[in-house]
Amino acid sequence: MIPITVVDVRDAEDLVVEVLRSGAIAQGPMVKRFEDAFASVSGTKHAIAVNNGTTALVAAIQALDLKPGDEVVTSPFTFVATLNAILEAGATVRFADIRRDDFAIDPDAVAAAITDRTKVLMPVHLYGQTADMGKLAPLAAEHGLKIIEDSAQAVGASFQGKPSGSFGIGCFSLYATKNVTTAEGGVITTDDDKLADSLRVLRNQGMRARYQYEVAGHNYRMTDLHAAVGIPQLEKLDQLTAARQANAKRLSEGLAGTPGLDIPQVLPGREHVWHQYTVLVGPHAFLSRDELAAALTERGIGNGIYYPKIVFDYDCYRNNPLIPDAKVEDFPVAASVAAQALSLPVHPHLSESDLDTIIETVREVLGA
Ligand SMILES: Cc1ncc(COP(=O)(O)O)c(C=O)c1O
């Protein structure tokens, strides 16, 4: 079996043992060390570690002090955490359709979705490539919107040299399968001193000094144990990313010209960090997406469907007053991508022969 993902954190053993021996295992100096290393990756002044990527998004929205009815514009093609975080923070969600080339929100659709209640633009940098920040950042500025980037899948990615998470408030996930992991964890990045301060207070029950509460906060803290797991990966992130990029290049060369298959693109000026390598299985392919997924699984090639449906197209979200007017038919690109997307292994632990096997098997079952 060639798995879709491999978690390898063995190089964290010494640091984790150091924390265990210290007896101070909750948030402490290791979290600070992790935050400093992360801020240099995201090119931001501050990195605030939290306990997962979902709470990173919730805290980022909460720190903006939105009023009831204020709106966040985001992508309908994303992991459910994006939507759940907005709802948890009590904001109203508006969706903008995506583009087929980068799987992220289409600036033209965003412009159409903005109303006089819109306060936040939340692009999702899906699969490891940023959204079109060259158009989205000026659009946000023009309408006075804050940008919260869902950078959960895009640590180390950049747009015209500017790192993901540095365009506004960056929210990263460090979940086990992410390019950098602490098992569970998240990070919020910002250049804004005041916002960073608010986030640190919010993270710790709204408390600045012991039992001095400034806001109704939460426990969003990361532990030193988790931070210790992530530090070695940040130190060798360039190497890990380069391995993903080399694997993606080889997959794309090998799969080029397979009938009915669209291979993922790296758009000009964007550094793609390949959290996922996602092909689109078009209507003229020899097998449907689901048939291809089943055929690959049967032949020992791990694969994943991220994501099978538009994010709000589930009973639990219907008639939610915080998701007004959301209709599946208004998002044709997201709907067609959700029906065609299939991710193949691209992680840094693939061997040359694994890559050959993936390429040969996909080509063979699609009759290439
Ligand atoms: C796009 C996206 N947003 C948010 C999250 C939430 O992160 P977490 O699972 O760490 O809460 C994830 C990852 O799971 C994600 O892929």
What would your notes on this structure say?
- The chain is of the alpha/beta class.
- The protein folds into 2 domains: 10-235, Type I PLP-dependent aspartate aminotransferase-like (Major domain) (Aspartate Aminotransferase, domain 2), CATH 3.40.640; 237-365, Alpha-Beta Complex (Aspartate Aminotransferase, domain 1), CATH 3.90.1150.
- The protein is built from 12 helices and 13 strands.
- A 7-stranded mixed beta sheet has the order 1-9-8-5-4-2-3, with helices on both faces. The chain has a 3-stranded antiparallel beta sheet with strand order 7-6-11, with no helix packed on it.
- Strand 6 and strand 7 (162-163) form a beta hairpin.
- Helix 1 packs antiparallel against helix 8 and helix 9 packs parallel to helix 12.
- The longest helix is centred in the last third of the chain and has 19 residues, at 237-255.
- The protein is globular.
- Pyridoxal-5'-phosphate (PLP) is lined by residues 52-54, 78-79, 81-82, 124, 150, 152-153, 173, 175, 186.
- One of its GO terms (molecular function) is transaminase activity.
- The active site is at 178 (proton acceptor).
- InterPro entries: DegT/StrS_aminotransferase, PyrdxlP-dep_Trfase, PyrdxlP-dep_Trfase_major, PyrdxlP-dep_Trfase_small.
- Keywords: Antibiotic biosynthesis, Pyridoxal phosphate.
- One of its GO terms (biological process) is antibiotic biosynthetic process.
